[in-house]
Amino acid sequence: MEAFLFIPCLVEHVLPQVGEATTAVLVRAGVTPTLPKGQTCCGQFAYKRGRADLVRPLARRFVELFQDAPAVVCPSGSCTAMVRRYPSLFAEDDPFREQAEEVAAKTFELGQFLVERLGMVDLGARCDLTAALHGSCQTTRVLGAGSATEALLAKVAGLTLVPLARPERCCGFGGAFSIDYPEASEAIVSEKIDDIVVSGADAVITAEPSCLLNIASAMAKRDLPIKALHLAEVLAGEGI
Asked: What is the pTM of this model?
């Protein structure tokens, strides 16, 4: 099977290892990944600012770029959720809306694609760590893909998952929220780090790049020897 890769801005510019790991995971799953050239931002930052007018050109570009894909895979729940919203940006009588619906329906977050589309949970990965799982707001609440992440991690050899006291809590990033309300954002992520420390984990795993960056940065400020890993990095590993 072939799948087109949609690489988010944050992954391309800040966390390239997540993109590389995503490619490795798909290959391990027997999928041939294709990376279309000319990708742009999904537009979620502008969308959350109420600027749908700025998102529509990006949505049109995305749909045109990925319309021939058998499936579209993205290592970000929030970017995937944005693509799923594309149809709502166009009037019901706009012929482009149907094209947007078709592309949105075949766009998946990585874990969701593996479990729901391919029916795979065991990729033969190994990760000798005790880790806590942070389920991002967009992945769990908007996409409903949190169970897919858990199912995949449950099959990783050597990985011990420990619960967080408040697993449902946001990490405080929230896109524009962390910029508009930095003090509140820092307080929220500080509580998240407290919970990770108390859990006794030596790593935290998440399927969302923005959460990964936010949590990793907060832990670095405290000089904590706790790893922050993306789901793809764990699934691509043969022993971390």
From this structure: 0.94
